[in-house]
Write a structure and sequence with these properties.
Elements (H helix, E strand, L loop, with lengths): L2 H11 L7 H19 L5 H9 L5 H11 L7 H22 L18 H22 L3 H9 L5 H13 L5 H28 L7 H6 L3 H10 L6 H10 L2
Length: 245
């Protein structure tokens, strides 16, 4: 991904109504990976070999792919069957091989986030976007700084990663970057907390169902802010940070 494309994607999503625009970017990357895998990679010999080598995907991504392939009218299910057949053939060999190794390495059969091709792809692009944000703030890009200050900020996992990335760069702007990130995050956390207080207040009998419905979305939004998007991998975010050291 070129720097300009990364910048344009950040600029586009930063003004969205998402609790964390990095989570929104990750969802786009993940969705595109699944679509591309089903439409192209599943029938591409070299890409298919990588999936077989990893013994498939992690639980989260395997089900994402299965759901996408099972949509009415989709012809992607056949490709999944072919790949799964090859994976099972390899697993049969693996299981048989363990018998002669005193069963000490069965854990290697599990496809964890560190082996899942989709997780690895997602972590790499997440790192690119996070690095780009720190770089833009470090360079004093006023446009991004202003857009960030007006945004809803980040989920806590992404906020922590960005602060650590800022700490690791050698720049006179480091303190300013971290202060900006903290300012944005604290403002949005306080705002969200106020909305939760209003939600609790409206559970009282004197408020109507319509009154409660107006603030109902604050509950899932608060979860997104605290934990990140559904299916987020804090471990991979940490690994991404370590690779930048």
């Amino acid at each position: 991904m070129s720097v300009d494309i990364a910048y344009l994607h950040i600029k586009r999503v930063i003004s969205s109504d998402e609790e964390c625009f990095l989570c929104a970017l990750e969802e786009e990357i993940e969705r595109k990976y699944v679509d591309t895998y089903l439409s192209e990679l599943v029938m591409d010999a070299s890409s298919r070999e990588k999936i077989i080598e990893s013994r498939g995907f992690c639980n989260h991504h395997f089900y994402k792919i299965l759901i996408a392939a099972s949509k009415p009218g989709s012809s992607d299910g056949h490709g999944i069957v072919l790949v799964n057949e090859n994976i099972l053939e390899k697993l049969i060999q693996d299981v048989h091989r363990q018998e002669s190794q005193n069963m000490k390495s069965f854990h290697k059969l599990l496809v964890t986030e560190s082996k899942c091709p989709a997780c690895i792809h997602l972590a790499e692009f997440s790192r690119i976007y996070a690095e780009k944000i720190v770089e833009l703030l470090s360079s004093g890009n006023e446009e991004i700084s202003e857009l960030l200050k007006e945004s809803k900020g980040f989920c806590i996992p992404h906020f922590v990663v960005l602060v650590h990335m800022a700490e690791e760069i050698t720049s006179t702007q480091t303190k300013k970057i971290i202060n900006t990130l903290i300012e944005v995050e604290e403002k949005n956390l306080r705002g969200l907390n106020s909305e939760l207080a209003e939600y609790i207040k409206r559970q009282s009998y004197e408020f109507s169902e319509r009154d409660r419905a107006v603030v109902a979305d604050v509950v899932p939004r608060s979860v997104k802010k605290i934990a990140g998007r559904r299916g987020a991998r804090p471990f991979l975010l940490q690994k991404s940070r370590e690779r930048c050291s």
